[in-house]
């Protein structure tokens, strides 16, 4: 058995502690200290870790529990039928795996194959309710509580108009459902609170659980609660053979049943139902947070049974959350068109509101201080139509021990000039002191993605400008962190163009050392110098550690270039960007210099050649063992000149360097 890393154990401990606290606040104290979507995200992370390391699972893990403790003040009631929670699914793959498990388990128990049909029902976002009837008369109404013991809220339940006091048949049954507050009622209650000068409720979800626990049933009656009943959990008489028939039977008895349930003949139809309601959910007068899939055949339900906390025959397929949790891996700065610097949190990629994102805006220094967000923090982010999500809050309960507050830097290399930063007087914003910072950065990024460097198809100047202005990229390594969700909200970006760009980014991860060095926009280092440096150092690590003395020994690299390279690496931000890039790309092994007819010869190219571009001519020189220089000197052997040759031709004549045309050049190559 592989040893479990210490950081994994610590993460699990912190997750359990935090989830239990948030669950206690919500289920016991009726206080929402974290959104349900964010809590779901934390629980999902815990479940995934426990799936990877099953030996970490303990009986008291939140993943194994249904609910929390019961508040004092109400009579306790022991449920005659244990109350279960559903396991959650967040992706189509999760649901298909659930369908596969249903098939496998059924066959292992019976030896028979099954073609599952599912009753697909809306998952109402309210509070669970258990009702017991004797001879058709309401006997008790109870909350879920721990799943074994709940609270007796019968008097309050009687005030809810949708709960029948007498059924249409004199049966002894126990049913389950959801209590909720209609959106219209919620708005009415808030208007009344405003009129009385009271603090308004945050959302419908908060009101329901608290209302059921009110000691004064008149207050309950005034809040206009309603119900949907969806499960016949016990009966001493007739029991329908399918879940679909069961919903019809509950309707016949006089219960309010949600009308939008549908029988899905297979898992594909169930997924289509989920997709349909993800688009329509906001049109209803109640909160819907997903779809519940239940195996339609009750006999098959009995065969599958239950795990320690949930039925094997049902699953809750959640809608895409607009709030999720993730981890801040770094905090960087992004330059706007006017030189304003915006701090951006680089995140562990996470799916929110249907999109996978890897960054969120932190707005300014004051917002960072207000949130107290740090590298390594677990944060709640939300995306509500914006291109780049916001950080809503920090889950400080999960903060690493050695975290440090973020300090806004005084210098930033991408600002140009000496890189100085200043805070604008009277504002929370910072800006580059150099006035052309944005222009410099857009040119550097466009150069980085250009044909002579990383050669990313579709990543020209317009794309660079758009992503810069949207705050999606700021530095070179941001390009390799792009996700589909970062782009889909931008204008003029369709599915095909997004996929094409991301494919180009993936393809560009493999690059030669010389092109990599050329891409960095190190002062004085052009393409030819980058080739000289790559051939000498062979690896990025050796290049990074070069000294001025070592650099000046390289042919074609003088003291000016040597100093520029060393100064570039002295800057902490440059060094960080360089190392971040090495984590994203793979540099090809430097090939031995080719030997050929032009070995030892140096060429300078100028003017427009009849059939060859300068790039093509340069490639031919290098393939034949020659070298291409950018300027004419006494070390130049040939100047390859075409039409409109300028100063380089004059310099060649001045130094008596031989000038040749394209035809002679091609003859030299044979």
Query: What would CATH call the class of the largest domain?
Result: Alpha Beta
| Count of discrete structural domains | 5
**Architecture per CATH nomenclature, i.e. the level-2 architecture of the largest domain:** 2-Layer Sandwich
Strand content: 15-25%
Shape: elongated
For the termini, the CA-CA separation is 65 Å
Question: What structural category do the secondary elements indicate?
Answer: alpha+beta
So how many helices?
24
CATH superfamily of the largest domain: DNA ligase/mRNA capping enzyme
Q: Tally of extended strands?
A: 24
Largest sheet: 7 strands, antiparallel
Taking all Cα atoms into account, the compactness measure Rg is 34 Å
- Rounded mean pLDDT score: 86
In short:
With 670 residues, the protein is of the alpha+beta class. The model is unreliable at 67-71 (pLDDT under 50).
Polypeptide structure, described:
This protein is an alpha+beta fold and 670 residues long. It is built from 24 helices and 24 strands. The strands form 6 sheets. Strands 12, 13, 14, 15, 16, 17 and 18 form a 7-stranded antiparallel sheet that branches. The protein is elongated and about 115 Å long. Residues 67-71 have low confidence and may be disordered.
Features:
seven-stranded antiparallel beta sheet, Helix Hairpins, 24 strands, D-amino Acid Aminotransferase, Chain A, domain 1, 670 residues, 5 domains, elongated, alpha+beta, OB fold (Dihydrolipoamide Acetyltransferase, E2P)
């Amino acid at each position: 058995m592989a040893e479990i890393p210490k950081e994994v154990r610590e993460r699990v401990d912190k997750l359990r502690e935090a989830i239990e606290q948030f669950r206690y606040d919500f289920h016991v104290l009726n206080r929402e200290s974290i959104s349900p979507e964010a809590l779901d995200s934390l629980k999902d992370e815990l479940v995934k870790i426990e799936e990877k390391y099953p030996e970490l699972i303990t009986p008291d893990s939140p993943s194994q529990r249904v609910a929390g403790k019961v508040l004092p003040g109400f009579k306790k009631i022991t449920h005659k039928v244990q109350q279960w929670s559903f396991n959650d699914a967040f992706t189509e793959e999760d649901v298909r795996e659930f369908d596969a498990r249903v098939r496998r388990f059924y066959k292992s128990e019976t030896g028979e194959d099954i073609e599952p049909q599912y009753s697909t029902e809306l998952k109402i976002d309210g509070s669970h309710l258990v009702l017991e009837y004797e001879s058709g008369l309401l006997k008790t109404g109870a909350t879920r509580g721990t799943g074994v013991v709940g609270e007796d809220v019968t008097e309050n339940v009687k005030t809810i108009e949708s709960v029948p006091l007498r059924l249409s048949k004199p049966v002894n049954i126990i049913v389950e459902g959801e209590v909720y507050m209609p959106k219209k009622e919620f708005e009415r209650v808030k208007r009344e609170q405003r009129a009385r000068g009271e603090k308004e409720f945050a959302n419908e979800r908060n009101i329901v659980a608290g209302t059921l626990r009110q000691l004064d049933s008149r207050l309950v009656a005034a809040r206009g609660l309603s119900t949907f009943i969806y499960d016949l959990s016990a009966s001493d008489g007739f029991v329908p053979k399918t879940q679909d028939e069961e919903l019809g039977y509950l309707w016949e008895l006089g219960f309010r049943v949600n009308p939008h349930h549908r029988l899905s003949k297979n898992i594909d139809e169930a997924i289509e139902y989920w997709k349909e309601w993800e688009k329509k959910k906001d049109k209803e007068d109640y909160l819907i947070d997903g779809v519940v899939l239940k195996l339609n055949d009750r006999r098959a339900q009995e065969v599958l049974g239950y795990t320690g906390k949930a039925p094997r025959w049902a699953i809750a397929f959640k809608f895409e959350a607009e709030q999720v949790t993730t981890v801040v891996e770094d905090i960087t700065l992004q330059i706007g068109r006017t030189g304003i610097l915006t701090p951006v949190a680089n995140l562990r990629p996470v799916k929110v509101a249907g999109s996978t994102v890897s960054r969120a805006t932190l707005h300014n220094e004051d917002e960072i201080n207000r949130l107290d967000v740090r590298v390594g923090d677990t944060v709640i982010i939300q995306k509500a139509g914006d291109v780049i999500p916001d950080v809503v809050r920090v889950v400080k309960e999960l903060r690493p021990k050695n975290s440090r507050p973020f300090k806004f830097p005084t210098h930033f290399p991408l600002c140009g000039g000496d890189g100085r930063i200043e805070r604008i007087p009277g504002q929370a914003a910072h800006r580059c002191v150099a006035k052309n910072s944005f222009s410099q950065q857009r040119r550097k990024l466009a150069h980085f993605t250009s044909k002579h460097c990383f050669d990313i198809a579709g990543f020209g100047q317009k794309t660079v400008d758009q992503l810069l202005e949207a705050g999606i990229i700021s530095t070179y390594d941001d390009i390799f962190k792009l996700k589909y969700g970062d782009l889909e909200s931008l204008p003029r970006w369709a599915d095909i163009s997004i996929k094409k760009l991301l494919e180009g980014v993936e393809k560009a991860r493999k690059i030669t050392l010389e092109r990599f060095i050329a891409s960095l926009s190190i002062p004085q280092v052009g393409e030819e110098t980058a080739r000289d440096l790559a051939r000498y150092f062979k690896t990025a690590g050796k290049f990074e550690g070069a000294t001025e003395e070592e650099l000046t020994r390289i042919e074609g690299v003088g003291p000016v270039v040597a100093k520029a390279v060393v100064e570039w690496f002295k800057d902490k931000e440059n060094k960080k960007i360089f190392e971040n890039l090495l984590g994203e790309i793979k540099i090809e092994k430097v090939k031995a210099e080719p030997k050929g007819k032009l070995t030892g010869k140096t060429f300078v190219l100028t003017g427009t050649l009849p059939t060859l571009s300068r790039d093509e001519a340069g490639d031919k020189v290098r393939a034949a063992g020659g070298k291409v220089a950018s300027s004419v000197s006494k070390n130049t052997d040939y100047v390859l000149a075409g039409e409109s040759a300028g100063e380089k031709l004059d310099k060649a004549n001045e130094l008596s360097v031989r000038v040749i045309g394209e035809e002679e050049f091609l003859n030299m190559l044979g």
